[in-house]
Specification:
Helices cover 38% and strands 14% of the residues. It is α+β, with helices and mostly antiparallel strands. The protein has one domain: Class II aldolase/adducin N-terminal domain (L-fuculose-1-phosphate Aldolase). The structure holds zinc ion (ZN). Zinc ion binds next to loops.
């Protein structure tokens, strides 16, 4: 089997999605790109999380040609390929319909940076316009709206997060749902205090310099 390490990373990230209540039944996708070969590992479409093993994941090239695997790839594959083609720095993508972030998706609103942890995602999480699944529409809309953020909410659909690794994209998927949840509940009480762009930048510098363990 090819790309065992990347398969394992994508598999472990997929297992985090139901554990963190970001997906129900078959929804959601994780993919990762191998920096050496440029090959992509992605979840099969409509597959139960509790039955999934690393061997079920599909290896494909950047044009979507299957290199290894018998199952059909995620219905969202074209979005992932589009993003990998257009952003050389991205090596992991997570897509979910996580409920609190999706509240903002159906309202067509960005998620305000109400917590310092939002700085990790780039501040305000942008909202992308409605785009049908399949084809390049979602990818081109994400490229148009994402900017320097690592997450975006897509109108009437759900959330995409991106990272230089699969794990970083997975952490962002959990984080964006957390921020959305707190923003949603806070809005029920009135107008939450939103971080200024300066405060976001200040926290980004703190995270970059001193948060977490040395790699
Ligand atoms: Zn979706």
């Amino acid at each position: 089997m090819m790309l065992n390490e990347l398969r394992q990373e994508v598999y472990e990230s997929l297992m985090e999605l139901p554990k963190n209540h970001l997906v129900t039944m078959h929804s959601g996708t994780v993919s990762g790109r191998d920096p050496q070969s440029g090959l992509i590992v992605i979840k099969p479409t409509g597959f139960r999380y509790d039955k999934l093993t690393p061997a079920d994941l599909i290896v494909m090239d950047i044009d979507g040609k299957c290199i290894e695997g018998d199952l059909r790839p995620s219905s969202d594959t074209e979005t992932h390929l589009y993003m990998y083609k257009h952003r050389a720095d991205i090596h992991g993508i997570v897509h979910t319909h996580s409920p609190f972030a999706s509240i903002f998706a159906v309202l067509g609103r960005p998620i305000p940076p109400v917590m310092t942890s939002a700085a990790l995602l780039g501040g305000e999480i942008p909202i992308g316009g409605y785009a049908p699944v399949g084809g390049e529409d979602i990818g081109s809309e994400i490229m148009a709206k994402l900017g320097s953020c690592s997450a975006i909410v897509m109108q009437n659909h759900g959330v995409y997060t991106f990272g230089t690794t699969v794990w970083k994209a997975t952490v962002a998927a959990v984080e964006v749902e957390d921020v959305a949840k707190i923003a949603h509940y806070a809005m029920l009480h009135g107008n939450p205090i939103v971080l200024t762009p300066e405060q976001v930048k200040e926290f980004q510098e703190i995270y970059a310099n001193s948060y977490g363990q040395k790699e």
